[in-house]
Amino acid sequence: MTTSSPAPSKPPVPGALTVVDLHHNQLFAGLSPDQYAWLARAGVPRDLVDGEVLFTEGEPARAFVVLIAGELVITTNVDGRDEVLARHTTRGEALDHEGKPTAANHFTGELPLLSDDAYIATATSVGPTRVALYSKDAFLEMIVRCPQVCQVLLPVLAWRIHASEAQAGQRATVAALGTLAAGLAHELNNPAAAVARAGGGMLSALDTLERLSQDWGSQGTADERAHLGRFVADLRSRPPSRLGALDRSALEDEFTDWFDDHDVEPVGDLADALAGRGADVAWLDALADEIAPDRLGIALDYLAASLAARALATDATEAGERISAIVRDAKAYTNLDRTPEQAVDLVQGLEATLTMLRSKLGDVEVVREYADDVPRIQAFPSELNQVWTNLIDNAVDAMNGRGVLTIGVRRERQCVIVEIADSGSGIPSDVLPRVFAPFFTTKDVGKGTGLGLHLSHRIVTQRHRGSINVRSQPGLTRFTVQLPVDHDSEVACALGDEEA
């Protein structure tokens, strides 16, 4: 990432690190001459040109960075685009988040170094910039030799963790909205298209039905009209046919042969309509026995038009009901127009989440293991749905979009247990204890913030006083969330997590 900025008033001077360089850094304020001398010897100076990358997101953290002069912009890759997290400068400009400590401008890289992890962002210079680099050993020795540094470093570290969690929470909200929008677009596409098709065909079908109604009414006798009415009512009362494709095709061929034998050619696709309603050739024979041969054609035309119009109306009704169900799922997922804390149906929340993620599930087989006696719990439904989204989304990623996702809900003493398991490759045993740690992720750069599981852990344990744990082996990773049914069961749920 290359940016431009006015040159600093005092450009960095190439050469060895000096005590004068360090005196201007707030991190080292008030140190003794011996401490400054050691810092000058232990640090490695580096002079950066405009747009030069100091470290890259995802690479192992090797140094604690002290900004001597200039500016660094800190970015992270989110869905293939660079997002600015912070700017550190010695120019005295008002930058970044409200409440940012001024000392936070003077150093970076301490968090991944302390956690022995990779850099969680990329640092790029803005204009000529000079930094001092301290290896991990030197950084730890710095804390011992210069304990005053901790008085500045620790508050900044705490602020950065809090700010990162806040940013991650905002990104999670945006991601949830994106998931909701994508899920709604995917789910609404088919029923909306069905409504449009039904509406487009309805006018033509009604015109045909009106014309044929007049013809049948003028040609058929009162008894024949009554007989046909009873046969139509019989068709409407029949459940939809459950024939397989081959058997249904064979039945339609029988209807077509019957039409040919009786020298009639009904309008529309009457053979398909009759097969779909469970009629057979014997049913047609019984109808033909009640109607004169010269009026059989118009009777069948009226029957075909009536069934076609009713089928369009049924399609529109079913599509409308599907749209209503999707809207209900969306409201359950977002919990619109509801108080934040309420009696929550966990199964309903899980199903709403599955609906919103349906477009991502692809070839994933979803197995539901819901007990019948699951009680409602007092909870924050939107936050729990965020947990389900994180766990299910991670499970699908772990299976590369193909496998078995098992979701179970049951009551166990005074807790409700939600288990989400996938058939993916599993989490390596050496990283399993760290999955809930902030900024830890096993995903590629740009595909994860390392805060999804951490935020889920906070929602479950702090907001709901429950517990969450994970067990994993190749072919089976299972996250178990335990939530108290009521306040008296909180201790039992926490103990269950410790025992696991």
Summarize the structure.
This protein has helices at 19-23, 33-42, 110-114, 136-145, 148-219, 222-237, 245-261, 270-276, 281-289, 293-334, 346-356, 358-361, 381-398, 452-463, 490-499; strands at 44-48, 53-55, 63-69, 71-78, 81-89, 107-108, 122-125, 129-135, 342-344, 363-370, 377-379, 402-412, 415-422, 467-473, 476-484. The protein is α+β, with helices and mostly antiparallel strands and 500 residues long. The chain folds into three domains: 19-146, Jelly Rolls, CATH 2.60.120; 190-326, no CATH class; 337-499, Heat Shock Protein 90, CATH 3.30.565.
Describe the structure.
The protein is α+β, with helices and mostly antiparallel strands. It has three domains: 128 residues, Sandwich (Jelly Rolls); 137 residues, no CATH class; 163 residues, Heat Shock Protein 90. The protein has a five-stranded mixed sheet, sandwiched between helices. It is elongated. The N terminus and C terminus are likely disordered.
